[in-house]
Amino acid sequence: MAIVTGLNLLKCVCITYTHYLHRRSARESATKGPPYLVTIGDAIASFLQDEDKHTMGFNWATKRNFDKGWPSKRPNRLISTPKSEFWFRAASKIRWGITMSLCIALITIVGFLLGMTISSQRALGVPVDLPSLWSYGVGASNQWATSLAGRMRQLSQTSGFFFAVLFANMFQVIVSALYLLYNNLLTVLVMAAEWNDFISERKTLRLSAPRGIQRSGYFLSLPYRYSIILMTCSGLLHWLISQSVFIVQTVAYNPEFERNPAKDASSIGYSSIGIMFAMTIGSVWVLALLVIGFTWRYTPTKPRDGGPRPPFPMPLANDYSTLVSV
C-alpha cells in the first residue's frame, strides 16, 4: 500500500509539473513567438489573425469534403448550407470502432467471468439469488469465493503473491486505458459542439494563453458538467473493481496453533455482486455515449440576447484545423 501511495504521489507531482511547464510555455509563446494550437480557440484566434490562403473560398466546407483528400474545387460551389449532423459524425469511424469494440469486448469478458463465478457457487451449493449475493458483501472474502488456488500452489510464496497482485490489478489497468479512449472520443464530440455554438452567439475564445477577456482552456479537457460526472463514475468504477477482484492471503498454523509460514499462500478472491455492479456501471457508461452520439444533433440554439435562431448550424469541423481556418 505504501508503494502504491508513493507512486500515486509521484504521478500527481509529475502531472502538476507538466501543467506548470505547459502554462509557462504558452505564456512565453503568446509574447515571444507563434502561438500553440492546443485548443480550438487557439486555432480560431490564429487563423483570424493570419488567414490561411490555401482554404480561401471554402466557406461551406465540412469534414466530409476532406475525408477523401483535398477537394478539386471549391465546396461552396457544390453544396448549399450545412445540415444538422448527429454527434457521432464528429469522430471518425476508426475512433468509434476501436473505442466501442474494446469496451464491449471487456464487458463481454467480464460477463463471461461472472457466469463462471455464479456457476462455481451453484456447484458448491451456495445460493446465488440477489438477496444472498448481497448478503455476502461487496469486497468481503469468503472461503468458497476464491479462484486460481491450484495455480498458486504451483508457485513459490513470493511468485504466487506477485501473480495475485498482477491479476487483481489487471482490470484496473485495462479500465484506465479504456477511460483514456472514452474521454478522447467524448472530447471530440464536445469540441464539435463548442464550435457549433459560435454560430448562435458571440463568445470569448478559450486559449491556452488567454489575454484580456479571453478564457483559459478547460483544466480537465472537458466542460465541468461532463468532466465531473465522468471522473465521479470513473472513481466509483475503480472502487467497485477493487472490491470485486482482490487478493486473499491465508496464514497457516500447525495443529498446536503455532505459525507455519511455509504454508502461507495467496489466492484471488472475488465478489459476484461487486462484479455485477461494476459491469452495470460500465455498460451504462458505454450506453450513455452511444445515446449521446446517435441521438443528439449539432443544431443552432436561440441566442441569449433574444435574436433570431440561425437557420443552419456551423459546418462540422471537429478537430480539423483546415476547416477551422476557412
UniProtKB/TrEMBL annotation:
Keyword Transmembrane attributed: yes
Membrane-spanning ranges: 94-114, 161-182, 228-252, 273-296
Top-level taxon of the source organism: Eukaryota
Keywords noted in UniProt: Membrane, Transmembrane, Transmembrane helix
PANTHER family attached to this UniProt entry: DUF6536 DOMAIN-CONTAINING PROTEIN
Protein name: Uncharacterized protein
Protein's UniProt keywords contain Transmembrane helix: yes
